[in-house]
């Protein structure tokens, strides 16, 4: 499994919230085993959008989508407690194509 490089704004967010080390650790775990128990990977609602998340820590999650069978791209790093609906609507407005190929 491969995770594409972070966008500059995502990197800045991680740095600002002191999450870089946690992200790198979670990224490594995900690339080795996406179903590692500490990641708590999940398919987000509404499921037809095919957005997933994995845990950075108890407060923050990385939201991602598959761009190829074994490659994902991060869509956002955010606090877990916030509503995801506004993010999904934002992706729609931006015309972001979210597609999962293969079984991941």
If you had to describe this structure to a student in words, what would you say it looks like?
- The protein has helices at residues 8-16, 20-32, 85-93, and strands at 2-3, 42-43, 52-55, 60-68, 71-79.
- The protein has 104 residues and is α+β, with helices and mostly antiparallel strands.
- It has one domain (2-93): YaeB-like fold (2-Layer Sandwich).
- It has a 5-stranded mixed beta sheet with strand order 1-5-4-3-2.
- Residues 98-104 have low confidence and may be disordered.
What's the quick description here?
By secondary structure, the chain is α+β, with helices and mostly antiparallel strands. 30% of the residues lie in helices and 25% in strands. It is built from three helices and five strands; from the N terminus they run E-H-H-E-E-E-E-H.
Key features?
YaeB-like fold, five-stranded mixed β-sheet, 3 helices, disordered C terminus
> How many helical elements?
3
Q: Over the alpha carbons, how many angstroms does the gyration radius reach?
A: 13 Å
What is the H/E string?
EHHEEEEH
CATH architecture, please?
Answer: 2-Layer Sandwich
Briefly, what CATH class?
A: Alpha Beta
Number of domains: 1
Regarding quaternary structure, what we see is single chain
- β-strand amount: 25-35%
For the sheet with most strands, the description reads: 5 strands, mixed
What share of the residues lie within helices? 25-40%
Q: How are the SSEs placed, and which strands pair?
A:
Layout: E1 2-3, H1 8-16, H2 20-32, E2 42-43, E3 52-55, E4 60-68, E5 71-79, H3 85-93
Parallel strand pairs: 1-5
Antiparallel strand pairs: 2-3, 3-4, 4-5
